[in-house]
Amino acid sequence: MRAALIQMPVTANKRTNIETASRKLREAKAHGADLAILPEMFCCPYENACFRAYGEPEGGEAQKALSVLAAELELYVVGGSIPELEGENVYNTSYVYGRRGEPLARHRKAHLFDIGVTGGQHFMESDTLSPGNSITTFETEFGIMGLCICFDFRFEELVRCMCLRGAKCIFVPAAFNMTTGPAHWELLFRQRAVDNQCFTIGVSPARDEAASYVAYGNSIAADPWGTVLCRAGAEEATLYADMDLSRIESIRRQLPILSARRTDLYEVRER
Questions:
Q1: Which one of 14, 24, 109, 168 is the catalytic residue?
Q2: Pairing of strands 169-173, 114-116
Q3: Rounded CA gap, 268 and 16, in Å?
Q4: What mean pLDDT comes out for the span 218-222?
Q5: Is the predicted pLDDT of residue 117 greater than 80, yes or no?
Q6: Better pLDDT: 250 or 268
Q7: Cys staple from 190: which of 16, 97, 159, 226, with CB 3.0 to 4.6 Å?
């Protein structure tokens, strides 16, 4: 399975962002991609003040564009994420489309990015966004895949649940920043891949030093052994990860981590 990691610039113009994503999806198909992944908030600046203003209900402009293009190109599209409106709530939501443009999955970010690092990043998604409540997997011709968004990926329980459902690859539209990115980005993608013996892919916006929130970039793919298959820098780029999914079972036979789990022990009990 060939995956295209689209690390695109995000501007203040929603239409421009959708056009950029569309152009890059066409390029991905031309380079033989089976599946393409866009970054978190690909059509919207990553700012609380923008989420509701740029939001759209189910079936909105950005979603229609991706669905139509997925069908035209016969390409699986993991549509990064967008601000999704439902009633009074705003969600950070990722939609996935199949080769006929049909919706395969919708994941609302479950763990909101509320952090305050001393001397570093401060951000409170909960000031604007509401959390989702699902663990998200979806079917493809290549097997089951998993999906989460950015801060979700820090929670091993969520990733393990996707793995136990049979996910062969975990897709993570994300926007780590210049505090958390250098410290944890590669570490997390390699470790989640090793822990769950699956592929992991993280896709970030390109870095814009003039933005109020500066994304780390460094979109990445790792295999079940923890090997980095590809990694971008800060700049606009599209990477291609060729994944031999048969490596999953081979590595699981060699290192029986999942099959040797002691679930009878994994419970916190009072002494």
A1: 109
A2: unpaired
A3: 51
A4: 98
A5: no
A6: 250
A7: 226
Dump pLDDT digits (tens) for 14-36: 999 999 999 999 999 999 999 99
Please tell me which residue, 166 or 126, carries the higher pLDDT value.
166
> Is 123 a residue whose pLDDT tops 90?
no
The residue count of the chain comes to 271
Question: Cβ contacts of residue 221 below 8 Å, gap of 6+?
Answer: 3, 5, 189, 199, 200, 201, 202, 228, 229, 230, 231, 239, 241, 243
209 is catalytic: no
Q: What pLDDT score was predicted for residue 271? A: 75
Q: Which of 14, 24, 40, 198 is catalytic?
A: 40
Residues 6+ away with beta carbon under 8 Å from 118 = none
Which residues are within 8 A (CB) of 136 and not within 5 positions of it... i.e. 6 or more apart?
105, 106, 107, 146, 147, 148, 162
Residue 222 has pLDDT above 90, yes or no: yes
pTM exceeding the 0.70 threshold for the entire prediction: yes
